[in-house]
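Weekly modeling sync, notes
Attendees: S.R. (lead), two postdocs, one rotation student

Agenda item 3: backlog of single-chain predictions. S.R. asked that every request posted to the team notebook include the full sequence so nobody has to chase files. The rotation student volunteered to paste the first one in as an example of the format we agreed on. Action items at the bottom.

Example entry:
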Amino acid sequence: MCFGERRISMSRKVFGILMALTLALLMAVACGPKTTPTPAPPTKPVIQPTTPPAVSPEPTKTPEPFTLTMWDIYPQGQPSRAVLDNAIKRFNEKYPYVKVEVTSYAIADFKTKLVTALAADAAPDIFQTWGGGTLFTYGARGQAADLTPYYLADPAFKDRFTSAALSFVTSPDGKIYGVPLEVSPVLFFYNTELFAKHGVSVPKTFDELLGACATFNKAGIAPISLAMSKATWTGDFFYVYLVNRVGGMEVFRKAALREAGGTFEDPAFVQAGRLLQQMVDARCFQDGFLGAEYASQRQLLGQEKAAMTLMGTWLPGQMAKEFPEVYPKLDYFLFPLVSGGAGTTSQLVGGTNLAFAMSARNKHPEETMALFKEFASVATADDLVALARRLPATKYTFDPAKVDALTIRAAMELEKASAVQLYYDQYLPPDMATAHLDITAALFAKTTTPEQAAKDTEAAAVRYLKK
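Predicted structure, as returned to the notebook:
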């Protein structure tokens, strides 16, 4: 065999051997024992969080700044101005983006401007109120916001107030239209030194009051200071008390609510007019009282030119600031009884003289309510007592170490009262209130008779009051 043939022959042998080995290997694998792969250990299920993972918060955006306009009757220098300013300052610590723009007016101008602004849909966001029929009329007209939902949403807030205070801003149908800061009974304040010097005892009856007036007139001292120019309501205090002392609480309520048998021609109203004119004839008031400006009423008392004045419990704070040397001489007595009358000294005339309402056009009610809640805070109540010597509308515990005895005693009179008659000009709706005040002024001026005044008042009631 040549070399080429031999190489081919060997290649074939080698190829054959390789093929035989390959087949043997394949058969061994196919016929060999099967093996089960080892399973991997079970993995625990991944529990997804129920809330998304925390992410870095975006910076809190400060709300856009805005202004709340507010009208009241307290200019700078008045004790109540400091009370309100302090409350606004505390409010701004929590709501720095809200500017509270305050405008203060004299009381007579305030009432006129507010009526005009409300009628023109240009009222401030917040305005002072005395509650009663005037406020409820604004509410019925859609000019004052109904705050009832805010009170109901925060029972603790509502519970801060005394029931008497809240009643002054709650309409007969149960809607709450205001937030009261204070309550004020009307009391007879007098100069104790002048009484002692001239031997005058505190009068407990109407006849004794006339006797005291006669004594002071002889001494050249105005018995009672009164100022009715642009403030007829100051004289109305006398008429309201006289109606009460003659006829009790029900006679006015029935007439005002037009209940069966209720009329402003009731003998109690006529008799009250007679007693009022009897005081005018007895010169119980200083000369020129019909044309005197409101501030002069307390100034005469402070200058010790008058012995008495009938005023709400905001007077002590004013006197303490303006006449600190006279303030310690002040005391008070309850309006005297009328012989044979149905009224009692536990029945007071009073109301809230520092309350606020929200305009229905207010675009920021939540912030406004936050301000109102600050007005009703303990800090504000403390300021009312300490700075203004006024009685808080909220439930309050007086500290004898910090509060003078006169303020505490006045507060106790309110707590002991069996009833509180809201001022007529606030209880009645605006048109009726105006008519009533005009008729009362005519009684003081003696340009009408008690009988005619009663007829005119009843005629106004028929016109303005709904049954």
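Discussion: group reviewed the output briefly. Residues 66-183+351-421 form a domain with the D-Maltodextrin-Binding Protein; domain 2 fold (CATH 3.40.190.10).
Action items: rotation student to repeat for the remaining queue; S.R. to check formatting next week.
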